[in-house]
Amino acid sequence: MSELFERNGELIQRRWPKVWHRLSVENSAELRADLVDGQGSTLSINGIQLTSRHDRTREALLQAGSLPVDSPVVHVYGTGLGDLQLQLLERTGLERLYVHILNGAVFSLVLQLLDQQAWLSDSRVVLLYAGDLAEIQLPYFALPSELVLADDYNAKIRDRLISETHLTFNNREFNADNPEIAERLQASVERVRADANAAELFATCSGREVFVIATGPSLEQHFDTLRAVREQAQRPLFICVDTAYRPLIEHGIKPDVVVTIDQRISTRHLPCDATRDITLVYMPMVDPEVLGGWQGKRYVAYSASPVYRDMREQLPKAQLFVGGSVIHPAVDLAVHMGASQITLFGADFAFPNNKTHAGWNDGDLGPQVGAARHWVLDGHGQRVKTQLNFRSYLCELERYIAGHPQVAFYNSSRAGAMIVGTTFHPELTR
Predict the structure, then answer these.
(1) What positions does the domain 6-hydroxymethylpterin diphosphokinase MptE-like occupy (predicted)?
(2) Judgement on whether residues 276 and 409 belong to the same structural domain of the protein
């Protein structure tokens, strides 16, 4: 144990004994650490520079400048080399600085190599592991290097931080002034005016169990089970997302309700023949050809998107929650209908077994497996490939589940992402 580690450790142990207990057993020996020189120098961990190698102080000043100057409380995610913490602590109005560890082994290594007592000794500092809290705290700055290096324990918070950081960029396509969006909405006005309000479905299944069926690869494990349950006289209500419809039909499973919200969904995904006894719940951006061909009852809903602002005022309909994916309004519809128990199928938010979706070829519904550069933890606690938008959708579903404690949520597979707030179904989980 280095002398620096002992001195840093004594301070942490005195102030945060539980944190020190965990830090002292972190395995930093597995990290590949290098000193990287430029106009200055920094530490590189597994090929990722913790800070600038040219001017760490100037970089920290820039990072601090993105945070409100008058906020009495600030949160920093990642420990870096302590530069940002020192800059923030120079603010006389700062009352509390929370420093959230994103990788315990990385911080343990820094404690061995650099004196961190200047900021650790400040009475305004609170040190904790990011994963100790279920949700991100505002206002915050997340050190980019440690968003990449975040370990398994802190991965859920990393995902929330990245999702929050990308929110404005992700929403750029959904501008109400976009001519293509305006044209699509105009094409659907008369149908929206004539079709039923999704609110008419609310409270129609009070206390009933609902299966919400998505298109993740693990759905393929459940076709036989779903077909058998569908034939029972007393059974759960089947609500599926649009891209799950065709694989279900091809396996002899007819859903009760299909939910669709995306303008890119076509009759290829939702073939309209033999849909007379299937309910369609849609949002006005959906392809008019799909709506025109659907034989069953159609119900309209909106999301909170600015895209629907004018239409919501002119043609009031129910509003369903959308957090980027069609699975969100499908789940929200089940809750509004009165479900007491919801079991999720194919809600993987990942690419288990190197597949993207059940019933579709690689790349049919988006990027191919080979393009996956990110990961989440699956139901076995192992890393499984995914993409950034899937992690964002997962975050929003977990937040939704946390806000509806009156409903029991079950997951039917351990192959996909672990979904906080769900329990693995004792009979159906594969």
Answers:
(1) 196-353
(2) yes
